[in-house]
């Protein structure tokens, strides 16, 4: 049996089209939704991410304001910019691309963003709201994973979900979201004993550890859903996930590819959070 390949690219396109329609209907009454994007320094990967986010904004009808600041920008200057954006009525969302240069405290910058404009869902208020089941902004990759499964008619309630990775951006929030969907959740990490055996119990296996092709078919139960959050380069420089796709596709029931799986969903959910911030205003 070969797994169903979940088309994240197509589902992300559907979401962006729905948001585009919504924005078109609201814009004459409410003005244009606006996302401020702050990038500090010369990190090449960050530049690519930011460019893709701005292109998605343009597609959906969200105005993006770009603040591309030199590496030498001080922490005080970044904080002053965030304060200014917090105050502006015509800015609905604020995104500060991470990582920031080493001389700037990421946590302090995130905590300075008004939680109502925190479309990344990184502010402790939004993280707290997620963990107690209150409304707020949910970080985009985990929100995208849930949406991907819902739109693929994957049942989550009562299922055994194993997560590999405990990061603040993916592992911890996806655990909270899977609990909200009534799954039974196990979070594993680099010190988990018998990792492959634990993973083999999963009906839904979510992998976010940042190691190319780490998960092989020995980790996957027959028919399981495998969600791959990784973006790595293999030994030939080709883009690949944390899951060995060719190996696992024969065993899994459904699997996300890399690229065109979870990645496009992250940006679609950022757009969704921007529209939510705008609607609430
Ligand atoms: N760096 C890597 N992923 C992200 C993200 O989702 N948001 C921000 N702001 N920075 C990132």
UniProtKB/TrEMBL annotation:
Gene Ontology, cellular component aspect: cytosol
Catalysis: reaction(s): (6R)-5,10-methenyltetrahydrofolate + H2O = (6R)-10-formyltetrahydrofolate + H(+); (6R)-5,10-methylene-5,6,7,8-tetrahydrofolate + NADP(+) = (6R)-5,10-methenyltetrahydrofolate + NADPH
Chain positions recorded as NADP(+) binding sites: 165-167, 231
CDD domains for this protein: NAD_bind_m-THF_DH_Cyclohyd
UniProt xrefs under InterPro entries: Aminoacid_DH-like_N_sf, NAD(P)-bd_dom_sf, THF_DH/CycHdrlase, THF_DH/CycHdrlase_cat_dom, THF_DH/CycHdrlase_CS, THF_DH/CycHdrlase_NAD-bd_dom
Entry-linked SUPFAM superfamilies: Aminoacid dehydrogenase-like, N-terminal domain, NAD(P)-binding Rossmann-fold domains
GO molecular function: methenyltetrahydrofolate cyclohydrolase activity; methylenetetrahydrofolate dehydrogenase (NADP+) activity
Keywords, comma-separated and alphabetical: Amino-acid biosynthesis, Histidine biosynthesis, Hydrolase, Methionine biosynthesis, Multifunctional enzyme, NADP, One-carbon metabolism, Oxidoreductase, Purine biosynthesis
Residue ranges annotated for the Tetrahydrofolate dehydrogenase/cyclohydrolase catalytic domain, each copy included: 6-120
Pathway where this protein functions: One-carbon metabolism; tetrahydrofolate interconversion
GO biological process: L-histidine biosynthetic process; methionine biosynthetic process; purine nucleotide biosynthetic process; tetrahydrofolate interconversion
Domain Tetrahydrofolate dehydrogenase/cyclohydrolase NAD(P)-binding: start-end pairs: 139-280
UniProt-listed HAMAP family: THF_DHG_CYH (MF_01576)
Similarity annotation: Belongs to the tetrahydrofolate dehydrogenase/cyclohydrolase family.
Subunit annotation: Homodimer.
NCBIfam families in the cross-refs: PRK10792.1, PRK14186.1
PANTHER family for the chain: C-1-TETRAHYDROFOLATE SYNTHASE, CYTOPLASMIC (PTHR48099:SF5), C-1-TETRAHYDROFOLATE SYNTHASE, CYTOPLASMIC-RELATED (PTHR48099)
Entry function: Catalyzes the oxidation of 5,10-methylenetetrahydrofolate to 5,10-methenyltetrahydrofolate and then the hydrolysis of 5,10-methenyltetrahydrofolate to 10-formyltetrahydrofolate.
Identification of the protein by name: Bifunctional protein FolD
Taxonomic lineage from the root: Bacteria, Bacillati, Bacillota, Clostridia, Lachnospirales
């Amino acid at each position: 049996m070969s797994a169903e390949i979940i088309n994240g690219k197509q589902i992300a396109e559907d979401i962006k089209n729905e948001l585009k329609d919504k924005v078109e209907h609201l814009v004459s009454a409410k003005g244009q939704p606006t996302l401020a994007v702050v990038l500090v320094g010369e990190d090449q990967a960050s530049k690519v991410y930011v460019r893709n986010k701005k292109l998605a904004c343009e597609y959906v009808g969200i105005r993006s304001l770009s603040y591309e600041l030199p590496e030498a920008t001080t922490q005080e200057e970044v904080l002053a910019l965030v304060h200014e954006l917090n105050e502006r009525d015509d800015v609905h969302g604020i995104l500060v691309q991470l990582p920031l240069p080493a001389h700037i405290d990421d946590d302090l910058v995130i905590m300075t963003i008004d939680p109502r404009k925190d479309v990344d869902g990184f502010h402790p208020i939004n993280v707290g709201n997620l963990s107690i089941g209150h409304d707020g902004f949910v970080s985009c990759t985990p929100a995208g994973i849930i949406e991907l499964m819902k739109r693929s008619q994957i049942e989550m309630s009562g299922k055994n979900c194993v997560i590999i990775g405990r990061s603040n951006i993916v592992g911890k929030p996806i655990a909270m979201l899977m609990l909200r969907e009534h799954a039974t959740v196990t979070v594993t990490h680099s010190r988990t004993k018998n990792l492959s055996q634990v993973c083999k119990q999963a009906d839904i296996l979510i992998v976010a550890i940042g190691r190319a092709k780490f998960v092989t078919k020995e980790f996957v139960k027959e028919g399981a859903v495998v969600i791959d959050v990784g973006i790595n380069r293999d030994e030939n420089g080709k883009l690949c996930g944390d899951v060995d796709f060719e190996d696992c596709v024969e065993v899994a029931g459904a699997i996300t590819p890399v690229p065109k799986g979870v990645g496009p969903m992250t940006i679609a959910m950022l757009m969704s959070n921007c529209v939510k911030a705008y609607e609430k205003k």
